[in-house]
Design goal:
The chain is of the alpha+beta class. It is built from 5 helices and 12 strands. Helix 3 packs antiparallel against helix 5.
């Protein structure tokens, strides 16, 4: 009996309408166990951000477009696990922008092509997709639950993302030479969240192969900023 034919792009995404990024029962197959853990608390947002960028050095980073809004931690964690479970985002994709709510998600990823080139893909809810000039990008698929648009330039993809989301609660790859790899986000984000202990808004983070760090905003009862860094033992 011959091997089954590989699923087409459309077949892969038709099943997404039954899934929710808020489903916390989805688990990653592999999770890093950090050998080192560092937690620092800052009373001032500026000091916390300065420490985050200093510790990141040349590592790829994500920063909140509006750090007052931030990004809900549990939603971000669920989205990483959900996309791993359904194969939506390969590990070698680079994440340039993301916006997550309890019900929907939108993102811009950079993807390597078979010929060695690069493409930038916007993924988001179909109803939230803004009008698009034909010259800007090409629609990969357009289904009731999700729409994907391919762009050849990062600027066009990010502009489309910002028109769709207005930047509210968004994270963007800024102040770095490249965007973080999905594999490093999946490897380190759960240990960071486990060390956090309670729900906070994610303000920014950096993610490398051997370590990662993230800064979280405070709450009404705890108006401080917490920086958490995890990594492998040196």
């Amino acid at each position: 009996m011959g091997a089954a034919a590989p699923a087409t792009t459309l077949q892969k995404f038709l099943q997404l309408s039954d899934l929710s990024i808020s489903d916390l029962d989805l688990k990653l197959r592999f999770m890093a166990t950090p050998g080192t853990l560092t937690v620092r608390t800052f009373l001032d947002r500026t000091e916390g951000l300065a420490h985050l960028i200093l510790r990141a050095d040349q590592a790829p980073r994500l920063l909140a477009f509006d750090d007052v809004a931030g990004c809900p931690v549990e939603t971000a964690l669920a989205a990483l696990e959900w996309t791993a479970a359904v194969g939506l985002l390969p590990d070698d994709d680079l994440l340039h922008a993301a916006r997550l709510t309890s019900e929907t998600a939108a993102a811009v990823v950079e993807r390597k092509l078979a010929d060695g080139g690069r493409q930038f893909v916007y993924l988001g809810p179909r109803l939230d997709a803004p009008p698009m000039d034909v010259f800007e990008g090409r629609v990969l698929f357009d289904e009731p639950g999700v729409k994907a648009v391919e762009f050849s330039q990062r600027a066009h993809a990010l502009a489309h993302f910002l028109r769709a989301t207005s930047g509210n609660g968004a994270l963007m790859a800024l102040l770095g030479r490249r965007a973080p790899e999905i594999r490093h986000l999946r490897r380190w984000f759960r240990p960071i969240v486990q060390a956090l202990g309670s729900e906070h808004l994610l303000i920014g983070g950096w993610f490398a192969a051997s370590s990662a760090g993230a800064l979280f905003g405070g709450t009404d009862s705890e108006p401080t900023y917490r920086y958490i860094e995890v990594g492998m033992e040196s």
